[in-house]
């Protein structure tokens, strides 16, 4: 396709986007899930329950007891299988509609794909490009929808999500015009959900903003950059926040609990519950529900096979590998997008939690519980970013690497996973079992809403109100401000226990205070109080802000049941630096042992650190 043709198509698509954006408000208001005058009072009730200063998260024993008590004569309305973003979101959606809800997760909340993302909350710039040049209205609708959800997600978890500028390098003037027009269209499609306007920066301005950006690439001089905005998140902490918020709202959520079989009605063969095994105690029990929602991500086919062993697979698994590099690779507060690699893929390089994350690949894979990155994929990412940087890109700089499996819904006409739309699928192939799959992190909330709507229809359930998660802030988010960390820095100290056993005071420095504030929101003061009052103010690893107090807090309030639960999902140390995570493990296990009363056999089982490879 010629350059002139591409620009003409982009201009025509921009005009179409203007027309669509003009009617966007009407589309949103016509959504039946947003109708209903009872959303206001219901939302207020849930908010009060979640934000009660004296609220205590139900214990694991209480949650298990609630699942066991859901017998055939007193079933739950909905039992959700899978504690990733969509499953936890579905549990929160359903319980805030006044339904009786349970959720079980084989490993930990966010232990799978939901913790292994690019950490972006985005509408999909490349999906917009495909929509334009393939004249694909379905892809365009997906972008509209994702941009709507992007802003909602940032608003609902402001301590864990924020806007992030991303820089697109241009090495000829056509690229400047092309990317400027394309990203202006992205702004236009966002409409009232726009984060910030995109803009062009000269070569000098660009290198001032991004000092490691190369001025020469592939024998071409940098002509400038176009910077646009998407969102960024701490993915697993958002996921844990969803699960804990659902628990506070009344859902019985249980991690490390595996569905071993489905229970069917003998006469109708409808799915009416599940046999569940507590993977910590080994105990098995039955939980009955009017509808079972299968939100098992890449493993949803395994759940479907429990209902029908001959069912055809829905999942086309795609592997996404990311690596973490030192902070000097990218400036704080500015990302870089490589719009086209040698094989046509997009690679991001983003600042994240004081380090730089780079990725991702997109290739066919097999489904496994602990996917591992391959060396050629790591080298591919390093090679892709090296063309755009003025520093030496070294394999020895890789602090950690991980692979996640995207649960893409199979399209028989697609030749490869990169061309498959990330839209989601909701279906009920077997009576009583609703499956939700596909989609992406950004749209988890609406995916959950669609799954709950399908479950309500399947089970003829009677919710007390419509969906209210559009404007429901997660635990820790209500009342949080970017300046909230100053309260911690001014009013708390970190009491640290020395190797000799003496407790000495330490400053609650700005780095630690900001970390706690962003990780726990308004509940950061509870963590700071533990650090101060219980002598758990010491850092877990040199060079990282994670405190011993966080281990105790997460064990008490976030269903943290193993050392890996903490280093990989409650904190992100295992994703940031595998060596530092290994060094921190003994102390983490020591604190968890005290919190959970473990014996020697349990401490041996908790050191399952096969999370990442470096």
From TrEMBL:
Record keywords, A-Z: FAD, Flavoprotein, Mitochondrion, Oxidoreductase, Transit peptide
InterPro entries attached to this UniProt entry: DAO_C, DAO_C_sf, FAD-dep_OxRdtase, FAD/NAD-bd_sf, G3P_DH_FAD-dep
Broad enzyme group: oxidoreductase
EC number: 1.1.5.3
Subcellular location: Mitochondrion
Cross-referenced Pfam families: DAO (PF01266), DAO_C (PF16901)
Ranges of residues in domain Alpha-glycerophosphate oxidase C-terminal: 467-601
Pathway(s) annotated for this protein in UniProt: Polyol metabolism; glycerol degradation via glycerol kinase pathway; glycerone phosphate from sn-glycerol 3-phosphate (anaerobic route): step 1/1
Annotated ranges, domain FAD dependent oxidoreductase: 77-445
A GO term for molecular function: glycerol-3-phosphate dehydrogenase (quinone) activity
Keyword Transit peptide: yes
Domain of life: Eukaryota
Cofactor(s) listed: FAD
Residues spanning the membrane: none
Similarity comment text for this entry: Belongs to the FAD-dependent glycerol-3-phosphate dehydrogenase family.
Protein name: Glycerol-3-phosphate dehydrogenase
Species the sequence originates in: Acer negundo
